Amino acid sequence: PRGAALRTYAATGADDYSRTPWFPALDADLGTPLGEASKEDGVWRRDFEGGVAAVVLGEGRGGTVRLPAGLRAPGPTGDPDGRALGSEMPLAAGSGMIALRA
Fold first, then answer.
1. What is residue 5's predicted lDDT score, i.e. its pLDDT?
2. In what order do the strands lie in the sheet with 96-101?
3. N- to C-terminal Cα separation, the chain
4. What span, in angstroms and rounded, lies between the C-alpha atoms of 45 and 34?
5. 63 CB contacts (<8 Å, ≥6 apart)?
6. Residue 74: how many CB atoms within 10 A of its CB?
7. Which of 5, 71, 92, 101 could be stapled to 62 by a disulfide with Cβ–Cβ 3.0 to 4.6 Å?
8. Which value, in Å, is the radius of gyration of the alpha carbons in the chain?
9. Left (φ > 0), alpha (ψ -120 to 50) or beta: where does 14 sit?
10. CA-to-CA distance for 23 and 4, rounded, in angstroms?
11. What is the band of 26 on the pLDDT scale with cuts at 50, 70, 90?
């Protein structure tokens, strides 16, 4: 499937030029997109077979992403074995999150 087993890693000057920061969410397998990205309450969101990705771009105000029931945060290996997530997740400006289907 499109997007399967692909990983994207990024580093910016704010992080450190000599290394790529690693977070468990970077190894999460979201699978195939279920549609285009959409923006609501200042949050860009895209739904995937395996979960949801959301981000608030820029330095303005943050926003809140609404989540379907049963999503979990990525655990230490990127699998959906992290904490259970509620129906809403506040995001600060310049931040993002990944939620996985269990």
1. 54
2. 38-40, 43-48, 51-55, 96-101, 71-72
3. 20
4. 11
5. 40, 41, 42, 43, 56, 90, 91
6. 23
7. 92
8. 14
9. alpha
10. 19
11. confident
Q: Which amino acid is at 44?
A: W
Q: Which tokens is 100 given?
A: 């996985």
Q: Is residue 48 predicted with pLDDT exceeding 90? A: yes
**CB–CB of 98/51 below 8 Å?**
yes
Place of tokens 């981000």: 55
Q: What is the pLDDT of residue 16?
A: 58
pLDDT at 100 exceeding the cut of 70? yes
Please return the burial class of 79, using the count of CB atoms within 10 Å of its CB with bins 0-12, 13-18 and 19+: middle
* Short-list 43, 50, 53, 9, CA closest to 29: 50
pTM: 0.73
